[in-house]
Amino acid sequence: MQKSSLVARLVSLAAAALLLTASAQAQGQNSVSASFEKPPAEPIQINVLVGQSRVINFDRSIGRFSVSDPAVAEAVLVAPDQVLVNGKGFGQVNFIAWEQKGGQFVVFDVYVRANLSLIDSQIRELFPKNDINLSQANGSVVLSGKVSDAKTVAQVEAVVQAAGFKTVNMLQAPVKEMAQVQLQVRVAEVSRSRLRELGASYAYQSSPGVGG
Questions:
Q1: What is the rounded distance in angstroms from the CA atom of residue 188 to the CA atom of residue 47?
Q2: CB 151: neighbour CB atoms within 10 A?
Q3: In terms of C-beta distances under 8 Å and separation of at least 24 residues, what long-range contacts does 170-175 make, across chains too?
Q4: Is residue 156 part of a domain?
Q5: pLDDT in tens for each of the 212 residues of the chain?
Q6: How crowded is residue 112: how many other Cβ atoms within 10 Å of its Cβ?
Q7: Is 97 part of a structural domain of the chain?
Q8: Distance between CA atoms of 102 and 105, rounded to whole angstroms?
Q9: Residue 64: C-alpha distances to residues 35, 59, 82, 172 (Å)
Q10: Phi/psi at 125 (nearest 5 deg)?
Q11: What is the CATH number of the domain that holds 78?
Q12: Which structural domain range is residue 46 located in?
C-alpha cells in the first residue's frame, strides 16, 4: 500500500515538473532580453505573429522608444524596464529603445508574420489532391509545390489573395497542361486575327466599285 502511494506521489511530482518546464519554456519563447550596458552591434531579431505579443526585458530603465511603422507593430511600455511589442500587420519594422539615463540604445528588427495555419487548412480542404505549401518571405505568402493543372494554380493564388495576402506564386503544373493552355491561347489569337482578315475582305468586296 505504501509502495503504491509512493509511486503515485512520484508520478504527481513528475507531472508537476513537466508543467513547470513547459511553462518556463513558453515564457522564454514569448520574451526577449536586451542590454543597454552592452548593446549588440547588430539589430536583435524578434518574430511575432499578427495579433500576438512579445515582451522585451531591459537591464535598465527605458527613456524613450520608436517604431518605424506603427501599422505593422506597436510598442507599449508596461514597466520602467519592460516593453510589450504587439504584432498588428504583416511586415517588418525597426524598433529602437533608448535608456533613460545616458545615450545608449538598442535596435530591433521586428518581423510580424501571419498565422498561416487557418488559410493552410482551407487550402488543403479545397485542394486535397494537390501538394501545396505556404511560407512567408518579405511580407508575402510564397506558394510552392505541385498541382494537377494550370487552373488550380490560379485558384490557389486567388484564395490566398482573398484572405488579404500578397503572393509569390511558385506552384508548378504539369508541362503538358501548361503547353495545352498556351496552345489554346495561340489558337484563340489566330482565330481572332483570321476573323479580322475575313471581316476586312468582306467589307472590301461589298463596297461599291469606282467607275464600274
A1: 49
A2: 12
A3: 170/142, 170/143, 170/144, 171/132, 171/143, 171/144, 171/145, 171/146, 171/147, 172/145, 172/146, 172/147, 173/146, 173/147, 173/148, 173/149, 174/148, 174/149
A4: no
A5: 554 554 455 445 444 433 333 333 334 458 899 999 999 999 999 999 988 999 999 999 999 999 999 999 999 999 999 999 999 988 899 999 999 988 899 999 999 988 888 889 999 999 999 999 999 887 789 999 999 999 999 999 999 998 888 899 999 988 655 556 666 667 667 666 666 666 655 555 555 554 44
A6: 25
A7: yes
A8: 9
A9: 15, 15, 12, 49
A10: -75, -40
A11: 2.60.40.1080
A12: 30-113
Number of domains making up the chain: 1
Give the three-class secondary structure for 45: strand
From CA 34, how far away is CA 31, in angstroms rounded? Answer: 10
All three cell numbers of 72, joined, read: 505593422
In a domain, 72, yes or no: yes
Q: With b meaning 16 or more CB within 10 Å and e meaning fewer, what string describes 80-109?
A: ebebebbbbbbbbbebebbbeeeeebbebe
